[in-house]
Design goal:
Layout lengths: L13 E5 L2 H4 L12 H6 L17 H15 L3 E5 L2 H4 L9 H16 L3 E5 L7 H4 L8 H17 L5 E6 L1 H9 L11 H23 L6 E7 L11 H11 L5 H4 L8 H4 L7 H5 L5 E5 L6 E3 L7 E3 L17 H14 L6 E5 L17 H19 L4 E7 L18 E4 L4 E4 L1 H15 L1
Parallel strand pairs: 1-2, 1-10, 2-3, 3-4, 4-5, 5-6, 6-9, 9-10
Antiparallel strand pairs: 7-8, 11-12
Helix pairs in contact: 3-5, 7-9, 8-9, 14-15
Length: 445
């Protein structure tokens, strides 16, 4: 195992891991939880690799104490997790399910008892199916139901949770779920995609506004994923600009600038009502940035938005997802965010990690040196961005555990901890020990 190479992140820098409810919890039929759009999507033939579902996943619902003990062993400061909306409101609205919330009461208590700070994400893609049957995120009313849900959760858990995340990667929910059809709910509609962009932004704005009135001393923010296309040598800059204005900037520009990007503005205008942008431009205390790889795009006049995403060349290094490994793009993207917004709140790297083919040796060990190298190189990229003036205050590895990787089922593994899905046995990978040592060395530097 490679020795940690500490960077000067400072004593106040936060170290953590991230997970998501549907990817780890399982127990989809327990304590009053109703189906989410992912439960329904998983039942559709051919949607999920190997026909996998999140029905059991990592059984975190029952094994959360064991998993939090791993976090304590890792010596992490913070843990970002999500709450399953259909556990709290099985129909998405109306009647509150106290039995569902009790799990999160126990979970938060255990996190805090182990000296870890909980960061709660309200929405990581698992919309209640009952709301999908009312139009889901294409229905403007969903923003209001989301707001009711966030208030209910904050009222119950806000005495122990100090950081709330409004949305995780809304671009993925809108684009993969409503335009490409690769994620739940599996729609393939340009109109749905555009309406969902705005309604997700509206939900975040309404939720933020409502939470500010609750009197809690909370830090409120949101999480976006970034893979800006121009950060590649020889990129088609015109196609890249269009791509990024359609996919990446629409979730930060309205929040921080009060407007949609130039390329998207006329397309999304039919869904925007008077006062919406003022509501969406609500002050936030932090922005979470998720980064895995940079996109490559070319112009294509026949494509719905005028660009086409293309795979990286064969010669470049890739993860098991086929994603290009390019840490320099991470630095460039963080600087691009800083340069675009004059009043940028502090940034936390809320997800970064990689899937590789992990081999379990005869002695049970897992020497995932590729993952360790990936994380180390990307931490160096974060340090470079900090040196360039980007206010970055924390880093969360994706992910603590191997888990249900959406359309890839259980075929791709991102965890620092290996999960045997047949037995639910947890095994620390070499990257777990490396990250543990890195955190300790960074604190002592």
């Amino acid at each position: 195992m490679r020795e940690p190479v500490p960077q000067d992140f400072g004593p106040d820098f936060l170290w953590g891991t991230s997970t998501a409810a549907y990817q780890i919890e399982g127990a989809i039929n327990e304590d009053g939880r109703a189906p989410s759009i992912w439960d329904v999507f998983c039942q559709q033939p051919g949607k999920i690799l190997n026909g996998d579902t999140g029905a059991v996943a990592c059984d975190h619902y029952h094994l959360y104490r064991e998993d939090i003990a791993l976090m304590k062993e890792l010596r992490q400061d913070v843990y970002r997790f999500s709450v399953a909306w259909p556990r709290i409101f099985p129909t998405g609205k109306g009647k509150f399910n106290s039995a569902g919330l009790d799990f999160y009461q126990r979970l938060v208590d255990e996190i805090v008892a182990n000296g870890i700070e909980p960061w709660l994400c309200f929405y990581h893609w698992d919309l209640p199916q009952a709301l999908q049957e009312l139009g889901g995120w294409t229905n403007r009313d969903t923003a209001g139901w989301y707001t009711d849900y966030t208030i209910a959760v904050a009222e119950k858990l806000g005495d122990r949770v100090g950081h709330f995340v409004m949305l995780n990667e809304p671009m993925v929910s809108a684009y993969l779920g409503h335009f490409l059809g690769l994620h739940a709910p599996g729609m393939k509609s340009k109109e749905a995609f555009l309406s969902v962009i705005h309604h997700l932004n509206l939900a975040a704005g309404q939720g933020l506004t409502a939470l500010r009135t609750q009197g809690g001393d909370w830090q409120l923010g949101t999480v976006v994923n970034m893979g800006l296309a121009p950060q590649i040598e020889g990129a088609d800059l015109e196609a890249a600009k269009l791509h990024d204005e359609i996919l990446f900037w629409p979730f930060l520009d309205p929040l921080l600038l009060g407007r949609y990007p130039e390329s998207l503005d006329p397309l999304i205008a039919p869904y925007v009502r008077e006062g919406d942008l003022q509501l969406i431009q609500h002050p936030v205390d932090f922005i979470g940035v998720n980064y895995y790889f940079p996109e490559r795009v070319v112009k294509d006049s026949k494509a719905p938005f005028g660009f086409l995403e293309v795979p990286p060349p064969d010669k470049v290094s890739k993860t098991a997802m086929g994603w290009e490994i390019r840490p320099t793009s991470f630095t460039d993207i963080l600087i691009a965010i800083k340069d675009r917004y004059l009043k940028l709140p502090p940034i936390y790297i809320s997800e970064n990690g990689a899937a590789f083919v992990d081999t379990v040796e005869s002695d049970g060990s897992i020497n995932d040196c590729e993952r360790t190298e990936y994380i180390q190189e990307h931490l160096s990229a974060v340090a470079e961005a900090r040196n360039a003036g980007v206010d970055i205050r924390g880093y969360f590895v994706w992910s603590l555990l191997d888990n249900f990787e959406w359309a890839y089922g259980y075929d791709r593994r991102f965890g620092l901890v290996h999960v045997n899905y047949a037995t639910q046995q947890r095994t620390r990978k070499a990257s777990f020990g490396w990250y543990q040592q890195f955190i300790q060395a960074a604190r002592e530097s």
